[in-house]
Structure formats: structure tokens, C-alpha cells
Amino acid sequence: MTIHDKVSTGMTGFDQAIDMLRLGDNVVWQVDSVQDYLKVVTPFVEQAKRDQRKLVYIRFGNHERILNDDSELTVYKVDATKGFESFASEVHHIIEQEGRKTFYVFDCLTDLLESWYSDLMIGNFFKVSCPFLYELDTIAYFALIRNAHTYSTIAGIRETTQLLLDLYEVNEKMYIHPLKASERYSPTMFFPHLIKGHEAICISASSEIAELFSSINRGEERLDYWNVVFANARKALNLDLEQQNQTKRLLISLLIGNESRMSELCFQYFTLNDILTIASREIGTGYIGGKSVGMLLARKILEVDESNRFQPYLESHDSFYLGSDVFYTYIVQNGWWKLRVKQKTAEGYYQFAPELKEKLLHGKFPEKIKEQFVQVLEYFGQSPIIVRSSSLLEDNFGNAFAGKYESVFCANQGTPEERYEAFVQAIRTVYASTMNDDALTYRMNRGLFEKDEQMAILIQRVSGDHYGESFFPHIAGVGNSSNLYVWDKSIDMDAGMLRLVFGLGTRAVDRTVKDYAKIISLDAPLRRPLMAIEDEKKFSQYYVDVLSLSNNKHLTKRADEVLSNDLGVDKHLFAKVDNDTLTRIKELGYNHLHVPYILDFQCLLKETAFASLMKDMLARLSSVYEYPVDIEFTGNFKDNHSFKINLLQCRPLQTRGLGKPVQMPQKTDKANCLFSQTGNFMGGNVHLPIDYVIYVNPDAYIEQSEQGKYAVARAIGKMNTMLKDKNVMLIGPGRWGTTTPSLGVPVHFTELANMSVICEVSSNDGGLMPELSYGSHFFQDLVETGIFYAAIYDGQRDVVYHPEKILQKENLLSSILPEHAKLASTIHIAKTPSMEVFSDILTQKLVCK
């Protein structure tokens, strides 16, 4: 250490006491007031000016300014109310910009409590900023109000900082007591020192020290400020309504968010006691996230409905909420904050996401949080649970994030240690899903990549019961209050629709392999959707998702096997015996293990109040939201046909409605159409010019190897980017976006997000079939991005399809994507300057000519 590495505090005697400051030092003062902090900041700043140091003041507090503007000082005003990530990132960029050997004065850190209400997050801010300041050989002054923070917060700051000092004023005398001073030592360094002029007089006599310290209030261990605020809020339950509402609005801002349509609805429907009950089930601190808020608000709207129509049918919930602050704490305490900041930049957004994702899958949680995890698992016992994403922006007006983040089922079997590890890994998996390609692109496309997207988590008991060795609800599904899949003139689109499955709802929200969910139009639930292939059995559910308790995981089983169990209710509510198959089996002399069933839900729809209840429920929620809604639910029945609905999720449905009526072309020569049909489309009324058609030839695609099929998908993704500002129609065999190449082209949704129209074409020879996946996450993506969808069942009645209209045109693949020229037999890109698509919802006519 040379003399050039040492820096004066501006107080000569104190320099002697601590052997001066060193480049890289973070200096934290525990003070009784900001005025006391000024007494040590002023000489430090004056000395820095004399030494011609670059001097920066970081201003964020509500207290009086510590330093006034002058030509030798750079002042940055940073807004703490924007939240931890925004604040910490802005300070990081300031430090990066100002560079090495800059001297800093920060406002009193305790003032951050007024914006964040969390000691934990103040500690996190210090832990991410202090090492960066140290790395750049800066010197930075910070202050904390004594006895305002938890011991664990102070312990974390002590561990991170280079100098921690107590500053006392007793009997109008100023004392400094060093508590930590890294890389320096003297026999008297850690005694209190009386500051007298330029001198620092060491107080080493026991009698003097005892007298000094006995007059100082050391305080008791404090709760985190977050807990203090909520504890004090309970006292407001005994106050008048106006005071309760003031407290309620504060708590809503802490748990749910600042002013928004959702927070106003929460203020309208939740009581103060409701909010306190929610807070009592939170792990950590911070927001509970959009999915949790949507679920809780929808339930409350239905519970307090004046008609009392819904309350008797609602299954209770006992969910927990992992606060959004835990997400940041996880990143900070594992040492990944600098990587997080790099990833949040435009240049590093995609570049650093894979590395951060991998780290998020393998981090450690703080001991206090781990203990709360144990308590949650003890509460649930061996009941299966699901760990669900609940990010700040999720399920809100404008951004649904449908299916972009993970949800993880925990069958919750095995030893306590095994159940704990599975639970914690589920949380890590949800955290890591913030770096999924689809989630990153979704945020980027909506201009959200720079916004705080903290990940809270919703922990729910799985709805259902044990049937054999499996656990599942009788039914589950998705409901939309607006039915855009209108296939005849009599359908009331405002009555809503359901996408219903037997077993776990994963098969309702995802596009399933070789399987179809039941589509129910709630104005006439027994009305069958228009199908180009009139085969009830073919377009039904063959497989059921369950939690296997013996295998301790989520499994898919054949419906016949699951239906062979005692369901505790008449299984004909959900299914009818497949008599044709049963007869054939008997005629062939086979010993069939299980009776074959067709899941048609006809008795459920005829003999129970289920459909009318769901119609009314969707209408009520949509009315309060003043917006169409999308819900997820489960249902469990008893042998008397009574039932309970568990409302798992509710969010605004990002729908564009029917659109204005379209003048359909008159006397269309079907021979000149690319396609013409009745029904099997989604996207409202359109009249859309088409600039390009990208056509995937079914025969050539089927002949491709699996690797070749993935190459086709990646080529589509590149064209999706290159033709972004054009009206492009994408036509291909089977299902777009499938994860199974044998069923269609395995593109990610982000690889077709810029298309104007996508068409799925049946290919009987290859077994490739479209799926009208209305209500699924795939559908949500289509609606949010405004993509028109059509399923073309080639060869069926009323379907005209002439792909040769495209194949006769020049294939532009080699000129647009020369690196994929070898796929020219499979992918054909044609320029189509005069092509147009017309659709009319009421007549269900669709024409492309």
C-alpha cells in the first residue's frame, strides 16, 4: 500500500485513527439523523475538492439535500419510486459511466424505505452496488439511520462494505466508533473516538466507554419495515372507513401495484381485511404478481355478487404467494446481478439470456426463505401442488403472457427432503423461464424489455382427488366470455365459450398431440361445432393428464385406463361407452383391459347446471372488468351431480372482436380461388391483401428427416423476420407450432408472429391434421398479434383448395434465403400482388382469391 492509495477523510485526527481511507472503500455511517451525516460528509467533500477529485452526488431521498450544486460536483437524481431494479440499474450505469477513482456521496439509504417498504431490498441494493464501486477504485459515503433496520440487513451491509462506522452525538460531543475497517488495524482502532477539532481522541478507559455507551439507545431487533407496515395496518381495522381505505390503498400499492385498472378494481372489491389475509400468506416481500391478483380478484367479484349465484359453487383455495422481492434477492445473493444488468441492455438482451437462464436453474435461496418454504410444504402435507409464474406484467390489461412462463406440477410424494428439493427446483424452473426465447421475444415485441418484469410465484393446491394411483380433477378447461368461433348465424358471441377436458387442464391450454378438447358454445351448449370431418370420435379426447402418485410426476394416460377407476361419480357425466369399438373387440375375441369410452360431456351439459353457471360467471366477470375475460378452471362432482368450480385464473382477453362487416366477392369462380370454404377459421371479419404466400409442400415435408423438418421450421423463422412489414400468408401441413414434427411444422410462435394469416392444411396421406385450438395459449398468441387463422380440410365437402396457384408462381426462396435453397422442393415462396382474403363471421364464408 503506497501513500498514493490512501485518501483523507478531511478530518486529520480521524485519518490517524483508521489509517485513512483507501481507494475502493465503501464507507457506511450509522447516524441518528441526516444532520449528523452532514458532519462527516462536509469535510470529506471539501477534501475531495482540494484534491481535485471527480465528485458525484447520488440524490434520491426525501430529506434535505446533503450537497448543493456547484461546478465541482455532478448531481444525479435517481427515482426510487420506480422500483428496485430500475433504481439499482440506473445507479449501476452511472457508476459505469463515471468510471474509475470517482468519489461518491449517496443520500441516506433509510429513505429508500419510503419507496420500497423493504429492508431486504435496501440490503440487496448495497450488495449489488458496493462491489462495483470497489472494483472501480472509488470511494463512496453512505448513511443509515440507527435502529431503523433489521439486524440481518445491517449484517449483510457489514459483510459487504469496507468500513462500517457508528456516529454518535452525546452531550453535544461527536463520537465515531469504527465497527469494521478492512485491511487496516491498530490496537486502538475499534475504540470510540471523540472528535475535537482536527483531533480524534481515543476513548479506551473502561469507565469512560461504559458511561458513553450506557447513554446510547442500541434498540431492539426490528422486524423488516415491510412487516412493521402490515402489523400497523391491522390496527386500522378498528378505525373508521376513511382511515381503513387510506391504509387499504397503501397496502394495495405494496402487494398489487400502483395506479392501474387492476389496482382500482382491487380497491373496489377487496376489504382491508382481505388484503391483510393475502399478505399473511406471502413468502418474502414485494408484489404477488398478475396471475395471483387476477385469480383473487375474480373470486372476490363472484363471492360478493348480490345474486349469491356463484358462492355455493366455488371451491375454496388456500394459495401462497412468493413475493417478487425474492426473485431479486435470489439473483443478488447468488452474485448474478451484473449479468442481469448486462442482459437487460439492447445489445445483451438475447446474448446473455442463456447464461442467466442456466444460473437461475442452480442457485441457492437465503436461509430465512428456505425456512418459509419448509413451512409451506408442511402446510400442504402430501397434497399435490402447482408452482405457477405470476410476473408483474402477466395477466394484465394489454399483456397476457399466455403460456410464456412455466408452471410446474409437484406430485409432492416421497420423503420431506425429496419433496422440498422438487419444490425448490420448481421455483427455480419458473424463475429461469423469464429467459425463455418466447418470453424474451414477447417482451421485446411489446416494448417491455426495459421494464421491471419481476417474477412472483403463485403456489396452489392442485384441485382434484385420488382415483386409483392418479390425482386429477374431473374436468378442467379454459373459458372465454366472447366467442369468436361463431359457426352459424344463431350463435350469441357474448354468451362465451369453453374449451373443456377431462383431467388436468394442461390439455386445454396447450395444443395437444393426437387429441382434441371439447369446444362448447355457451348459448347452446349441446350445439356441435361445425366440423369438416364429421367424426365425433376422431375429434375427441383420447388421453388424460394426471399426477401419478406412484411415479411422483405429471403423466399422460389413455382415457380408457383412467375412466376404469372409481371416479366417485357417475362417469357417464363425462363419457359414453364407445359401443362400435366394444362390439368390434368382442367380435375379434380380444380380452380388452378397459371399456372403451368417448369423452363427449353430453350428460354433464344436459343434466347439470354447469354450463349455465359458467355462462353467468363469464358474463359477470366481463361486466365488472368492462372487457372480455379469459379464465382457467377445474370442476369436481359428487354422485348427486352437485359440483364445485375452482377458479384458477382470470385475465383480460386480448380480443379484437368481430371487426366491421366485409363485402364478400360476388360470383366467385372457385376454380380461380386459392381456397374457399365454410367455417373453420378464427379472426373475425377480414378483407386483407396478401403480398407473399409461404407454402410448405406436405408431400415433400413428410419425406424430410426429423432434422430436415426442424430446418424447415428455422427457415420459416428467418422469413418471418425478413418479411416483417409485408402481409404474408403461411400455409403448411398439420399443426403450426407443434413440438412433434410428425404432426406439423415445429416452429416457435415467435417464428411466425409477423404473419398476417396462417393456414393449417389436412394431409390424409401423412396423417397431418389441423386443430381448431380455440382457447389455448396458441390461440391467445394469434389473437394478441392479430393473426387470422384457417384450418383447411382438403377434399371435404364445401372446401375448395388449389395450392397449384402458388406452385405455378416463381419460387423466391433461393433469392430471399440463399442459405436454405436446398429446401426449395419443400418451401415455396411466391409474390402475390393481387391476392386477397375475405371472411364473414355470420355466413362463415372464407375466400382467398
From TrEMBL:
UniProt domain Pyruvate phosphate dikinase AMP/ATP-binding: residue ranges: 287-668
InterPro entries associated with the record: ATP_grasp_subdomain_1, PPDK_AMP/ATP-bd
Highest taxon listed in the record's lineage: Bacteria
One Pfam family from the record: PPDK_N
Keywords assigned: Kinase, Pyruvate, Transferase
GO molecular function, one term: kinase activity
Protein name: Pyruvate kinase
Species of provenance: Mesobacillus maritimus
